[in-house]
C-alpha cells in the first residue's frame, strides 16, 4: 500500500463504525472531514478522466483510492464511487464484480434514505412541539394579544432546497446502479442472476427519472427476461435432480437398487406426493 493510501486508512480508522444497532459512527471534525473529502474528490476526478479515456483498470484503481480516502459514514459519496466502479467492471465484462460494486452502492443509498427518513421524522416532531408551544402561548396570553406565528426563516428554505436536491441525486445514482447491476446480472446469467435482473428492471420501471433510452432498455428486458429465467430455472433444476439421482444411486448400489426403483406419485386431490417402490426396475 502506498504511503498516501496508508495515511488515509490510518485517518479513516478513527471513524470505525460501531456494532449495528449501537451508537452511530464516530465522525471526524469538520476540518478533517473536509480534508479527506477533498482528497477523495481529487482521486475521483482523476478516475473520471481515466474512464473517459477507456483506461478502465486504471480508473478502478483511482476510484478505490477515492473510496479509501472518503470517511466511511459519507454513504452517498461512497455510493457514487462504487456505482462508478461498477461501470468500469461492466466495460471490462467483469460481471460478478460489477454486480458486487453496484450492490454496495445500492446498500449505501438505502442507508442515506433511512437517515433522511429519521431526519424528517425528527423535524416533524420539532415542528409539532413548536406548534404546541404557540398554542399554549395563545391560550395563556389571550387570542386577541397573541402575535402571529413567525414566518419560516430564509435559511429554512435553503435547507429544504438542499434536501430536495439530495433526494434527486440519490434517485439518479440509484437508477444508474440498478441499470448497471441489472445488466451485469443478465450477462452473468443463471437462474438467480436472471431473476435478480428481473427484480431490478421491475424496480426501474417504476422510476420516473429514467432517460428515454434507459426506459426502452427496461421495457425490452422485461419482455425477454422471463423466458430466459424460466429456461435457466428448468435447466438448473434438472441438473440438481441429476446430481441427487447420481448420489442416490451411489448409496443404493450396494443393495442392488437404484433410484429407478422409486417413483414419486402426486395425489391430485391433496397435492401431496407418495413414493412407490418397484422391485422389478
UniProtKB/TrEMBL annotation:
Residue ranges, compositional bias (Low complexity) = 140-154
Q: SUPFAM superfamilies in the record, alphabetically?
A: TPR-like
Q: Which InterPro entries match?
A: TPR-like_helical_dom_sf, TPR_domain_protein
**Positions of the UniProt region annotated as Disordered:** 1-27, 118-166
Bias class Basic and acidic residues marks the residues at 1-17, 118-128
- Listed Acidic residues bias regions: 129-138
PANTHER family per the UniProt record, alphabetical: TETRATRICOPEPTIDE REPEAT PROTEIN 1
Name it: Tetratricopeptide repeat protein 1
* Source species of the chain: Colletotrichum plurivorum
Amino acid at each position: 500500500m502506498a504511503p498516501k493510501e496508508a495515511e488515509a486508512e490510518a485517518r479513516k480508522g478513527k471513524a470505525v463504525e460501531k456494532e449495528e444497532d449501537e451508537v452511530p459512527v464516530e465522525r471526524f471534525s469538520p476540518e478533517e472531514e473536509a480534508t479527506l473529502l477533498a482528497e477523495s474528490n481529487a482521486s475521483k476526478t482523476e478516475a473520471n478522466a481515466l474512464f473517459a479515456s477507456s483506461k478502465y483498470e486504471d480508473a478502478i484503481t483511482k476510484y478505490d483510492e477515492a473510496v479509501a480516502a472518503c470517511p466511511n459514514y459519507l454513504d452517498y459519496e461512497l455510493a457514487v464511487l462504487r456505482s462508478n466502479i461498477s461501470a468500469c467492471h461492466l466495460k471490462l465484462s467483469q460481471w460478478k464484480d460489477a454486480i458486487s460494486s453496484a450492490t454496495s452502492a445500492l446498500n449505501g443509498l438505502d442507508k442515506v434514505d433511512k437517515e433522511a427518513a429519521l431526519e424528517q421524522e425528527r423535524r416533524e416532531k420539532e415542528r409539532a412541539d413548536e406548534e404546541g408551544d404557540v398554542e399554549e402561548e395563545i391560550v395563556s396570553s389571550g387570542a386577541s394579544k397573541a402575535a402571529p406565528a413567525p414566518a419560516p426563516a430564509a435559511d429554512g428554505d435553503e435547507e429544504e432546497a438542499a434536501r430536495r436536491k439530495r433526494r434527486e441525486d440519490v434517485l439518479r445514482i440509484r437508477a444508474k446502479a440498478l441499470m448497471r447491476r441489472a445488466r451485469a446480472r443478465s450477462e452473468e446469467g443463471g437462474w438467480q442472476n436472471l431473476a435478480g435482473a428481473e427484480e431490478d428492471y421491475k424496480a426501474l420501471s417504476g422510476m420516473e427519472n429514467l432517460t428515454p433510452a434507459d426506459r426502452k432498455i427496461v421495457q425490452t428486458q422485461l419482455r425477454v427476461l422471463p423466458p430466459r429465467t424460466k429456461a435457466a430455472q428448468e435447466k438448473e433444476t434438472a441438473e440438481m435432480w441429476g446430481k441427487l439421482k447420481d448420489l442416490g444411486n451411489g448409496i443404493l448400489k450396494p443393495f442392488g437398487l437404484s433410484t429407478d426403483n422409486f417413483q414419486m406419485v402426486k395425489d391430485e386431490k391433496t397435492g401431496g406426493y407418495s413414493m412407490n417402490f418397484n422391485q422389478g426396475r
